[in-house]
Design goal:
Layout: H1 4-7, E1 19-22, E2 25-28, H2 29-52, H3 58-81, H4 83-87, H5 106-124, H6 128-153, E3 167-168, E4 185-186, H7 189-210, H8 217-236, E5 243-244, E6 247-248, H9 249-271, E7 291-293, E8 300-302, H10 316-321
Antiparallel strand pairs: 1-2, 3-4, 5-6, 7-8
Helix pairs in contact: 2-3, 2-6, 3-5, 5-6, 6-7, 6-8, 7-8, 8-9
């Protein structure tokens, strides 16, 4: 057991507030972190899709479906993995609907968001894997920003520690582990994930350009990177969780995320060895001002940037419309 006297050499303080009132409206900082992450992800995804040749701000149309369904999926996943909180003895099952009281899960958001994005891509004509690749760095950055909400809420922290970057948690606190003395410091899992995700954004941006990861391969790399880190952070968290075969359910989800990401990269590399000819499915191409139709294909070439030849048999036209992964 670690106590304050042995550990307070240096530490990370927790914010003293988690919300503020604006007139009759209560603003939760966690919600602001989530919203900020969504906005940043939309802006970065729009930039990447536009550089690929997509209509500017088509990401908004896709997000109108993806974001709400992602939130629903995140809540459903949280309720299922914390079943006793809502349906156990003495619990109020109706509280499963009270999403404003907190309780969402990223893997549920990924499942719901993928469904919503697929529907949005069908609606707009954007290739689903093109959108997923464009989204991957922004999504990881949004997750890094969102983790600051856990810091403000003083929740989801890790084991007790005497490390100089131990996290201070107010006492008493509903999340305080029974039996630990006041002044105990904890592993700042929120910070670990922020740093890991921030580094991952740089890795994805570099790998996407260096290896021209298209057809969903960059999104597969995102799943591998994020899930590999989540296996570690989730394993040292001490908040209650359903356990399956001695392992937290979110660790199992992270293991599945790594396997799924590797599978996507392998299968898509076998199925699509070349580059994407367009961010749009055939027949749904957007015709921007200043673009002319190729005489030999149905693709449209941006005349402001001359095409260049590509290795691996890719045509000059394909190169012009797929210069950014």
């Amino acid at each position: 057991m670690i106590n304050a006297a042995a550990s307070v050499v240096a530490s990370i303080p927790s914010p003293s507030i988690s919300y503020f009132d604006l007139g009759p409206l209560r603003i939760h900082i966690y919600a602001l972190c989530i919203i900020t992450g969504i906005v940043v992800a939309v802006l970065l995804t729009n930039r990447r899709l536009t550089k690929r040749g997509a209509e500017p701000w088509v990401v908004i149309d896709i997000s109108l479906l993806a974001v709400p369904i992602a939130i629903i999926g995140a809540r459903i996943y949280h309720v299922v993995t914390h079943w006793d909180f809502y349906f156990g003895e003495g619990a109020n099952p109706i509280s499963a609907l009270f999403i404003w009281e907190g309780g969402i899960a990223i893997y549920g958001a990924l499942i719901g968001g993928a469904i919503g994005a697929w529907l949005g891509c069908r609606w707009t004509g954007i290739r689903f894997w093109t959108f997923a690749d464009a989204l991957a760095p922004g999504l990881l950055l949004a997750q890094a920003i969102g983790r600051f909400g856990n810091w403000f809420n003083q929740e989801l922290f890790g084991w007790p520690t005497d490390l100089p970057w131990g996290l201070e948690i107010d006492y008493p606190n509903p999340a305080w582990p029974i039996g630990l003395p006041e002044g105990t410091l904890f592993q700042p899992t929120f910070l670990y994930e922020v740093l890991w995700n921030g580094l991952g954004v740089l890795v994805l941006l570099w790998a996407g350009r260096r290896f021209r990861l298209q057809w969903g391969r960059l999104f597969g790399l995102y799943l591998v990177w994020y899930s590999a880190g989540r296996i570690v952070w989730e394993s040292i968290r001490i908040d209650p969780s359903e356990i399956f075969l001695g392992i937290r359910t979110n660790v199992w989800a992270a293991i599945f995320g790594v396997v799924l990401g590797l599978a996507i990269m392998f299968v898509q590399n076998r199925r699509h060895p070349g580059y994407e000819p367009s961010p749009y499915v055939p027949g749904r191409e957007w015709k921007p001002d200043g673009a002319v139709q190729s005489q030999n294909t149905d693709d449209f070439v941006d005349v402001s940037e001359p095409p260049t030849s590509e290795a691996g048999g890719a045509s000059a036209t394909s190169a012009a419309v797929s210069h950014t992964p």
